[in-house]
Amino acid sequence: MKIILTGGFLGSGKTTFIRHLAEFLVKQEGKRVVIIENEAGEVGIDDKLLSLDGFQVKEISGGCICCQLTAELTVAVGQIMKQFNPQWIIVEATGLAKIASVIDTLKKYGKGFESVYTIVLADAERWQELAEIMPDFVFSQVAAADLVLVNKIDQAPAVDLTSIISKIKEVNPQARVESVSALNGIDEKLFKGLIRDESGSTPTNP
Amino acid sequence: MTAANELYEERLKRIKTAAALEKPDRVPVVPLANAFCARHMGVKMSEFCTNPKISNETIIKSFSRLGEFDGLQSAAFYATGLSTLWLSKVKLPGYDLPENELWQVDERELMTIEDYDAIIDKGYNEFLSDYYRERLDNLEAKLQPLSYMPQAQKNIEDLGIVLFCGGMATIPYESFCGGRSMPAFLKDLFRIPDKVQEAMDVAMVDILENTRQMLRAAKPIAIWTGGWRSASEFLSPRLWNRFVFPYFKQLVQAVVDEGVIAILHFDSDWTRDLEYLRELPKGKCVLALDGATDIFKAKEILGDHMCIMGDVPSSPLSLGTPDEVHDYCRRLINEIGPAGFILSSGCDIPPNAKPENVKAMIDSVK
Question: Which helix (H) or strand (E) holds A69?
Fold first, then answer.
């Protein structure tokens, strides 16, 4: 079983992207997939949209704050493995999650999965604003990613995409960076590349 | 004096000594737990979080099985009360969620951009009165069960247990962020910062006065003056210094002026700005961390200035072993304590924590 951890600030398009990814894995690749939704701070309609598409969705909620969610997530991964034995788990991290901490906890306490591959979505339209308002957070998310998707490029025709990508590569030279419009669909080549890259991602302790 | 009274005084002295940066006879342990107690005792979350009497009984029963501790940060719990801090609705198990799920703050854009003007024009209390009625489904009436809180406090004190957190207050940033939703609020900070600040300044007048009145009525030892969306990791230094810290300074000073300890319940990562906390009154605050801020850095920067509380994180409590928890606690006791330190969970003990791990935390101070 492999884990794809999807991060990105609130409203960056994580749910839309996950729908495309899950659809590709299930329909094109014939894989068993379970999606874990961390709901803190997100609009609660997200999991319903995914469930309506027929995907297996496990929702975890975090009380008033998200400091407890990482442990809940690790427990949920173990439960899902026993209950559904999927080939892939796609985790939608809360928009305020510290991705590096989530990865650390999964690797330290999680059992039975082969690897964690991390995708972070950055909202092209709001990149400049968020990088100015919350630089530590935005850059720490990007720094933890294997793949960064600069999303919503259709809604941001005036933004300087080259400078966004250049900044992301400066923060995380190892990550692959792609620009997409998840709302308008994702080219299958990206998913195929993702699966190819994933096989080279950091293995965890079984 | 009864045995429970004597025990209470002994424990209170231990906690107050630590809070005053001195060395107590041993490090006090003061956990914070709500949902954990419900799961531990097999009480439905839907009943626990909507009935303060049930939550009070459950907390007492749960902790009576976990060893000897000095105090608790919560005597009872009522999830709807969270709306007063974050101006959001709360989804409740048994109503909006399955009956054994954790409650969830339902962050939506309930507060509009025009509300900043309403606050400036009408004052915060009048704005809140309308907001509670119109946007939070008549919240004022729903808060009636909180009238049980004084009895809940008495119930734990009668057992010789100190209630170390007797109220809650926060800064406008947290409430506005919850009411507007974080994405919208951050846009406001970027696009209309002067308007937001003007509304914060107006709101602060009423927040300070409300806090003073609460403290004079309840006379607590300490209160929660916390934040998480206003954590350093979520805001640039320039914005944090404009919209967060000046307001915490005012709130903490008002609490301390009333002779009450301010518990800086700071969730998420505040490491970058720890140095600023030296501007708060020395020996009058307790910095309560949740595992995200570097507690050892906090000791280095603030160890001679304010008591530190924490920070056994949720992951080892839920997923680790008693030995692992014990070892971490001993490290905290030795490196953050023994003076000016209170051992506690990092924020709330998670609902799926193993009771044996919570017991290991409590026993580690012996």
Answer: helix A69-84
Instruction: State whether the Cα torsion B185-B293-B70-B62 is positive or negative.
Output: positive
> What CATH topology corresponds to B3-363?
TIM Barrel (3.20.20)
CB-side exposure of B212: number of CA atoms within 13 Å?
Answer: 10
Whole-number pLDDT of residue A127 = 93
| A45 and chain B in contact, CB less than 8 A | no
In this prediction the ipTM stands at: 0.87
Q: Sign of the C-alpha dihedral, residues B11, B167, B85, B89?
A: positive
Per-residue b or e along A27-36, where b marks 16 or more CB atoms closer than 10 Å to that residue's CB? eeeeeebbbb
How many Å lie between the alpha carbon of B235 and the closest alpha carbon of chain A?
4
Contacts of B271 (CB under 8 A, 6+ apart): B232, B293, B294, B297, B298
What is the domain partition of chain A in residue ranges? 2-198
* Residue of B90, B228, B269 with shortest CB distance to A65: B228
For chain B, give every domain's residue range.
3-363
Distance of CA B277 to the CA centre of its chain: 17
* Chain B contact for A74 (CB, 8 A cutoff): yes
In this prediction, residue A43 has a pLDDT band, given cuts at 50, 70 and 90, of: very low
Domain A2-198 superfamily per CATH: P-loop containing nucleotide triphosphate hydrolases (3.40.50.300)
The Cα of B3 is separated from the nearest Cα of chain A by a number of Å equal to 37
Chain B residues touching residue A141 (CB < 8 angstroms): none
Q: Where are the beta strands (DSSP E) in chain B?
A: 71-72, 89-91, 104-106, 162-163, 168-169, 222-225, 261-266, 285-289, 307-312, 341-345
B319 to A44: CB separation less than 8 angstroms, yes or no: no
Query: Residue A40 above 80 pLDDT?
Result: no
User: What's the pLDDT tens digit per position in B334-363?
Assistant: 999 999 999 999 999 999 999 999 999 999
CA gap B287, A180 in Å, rounded? 43
Q: Between the CA of residue B123 and those of B117, B174, B290, what are the distances in Å?
A: 10, 18, 34
Contact A7/B at CB under 8 A: no
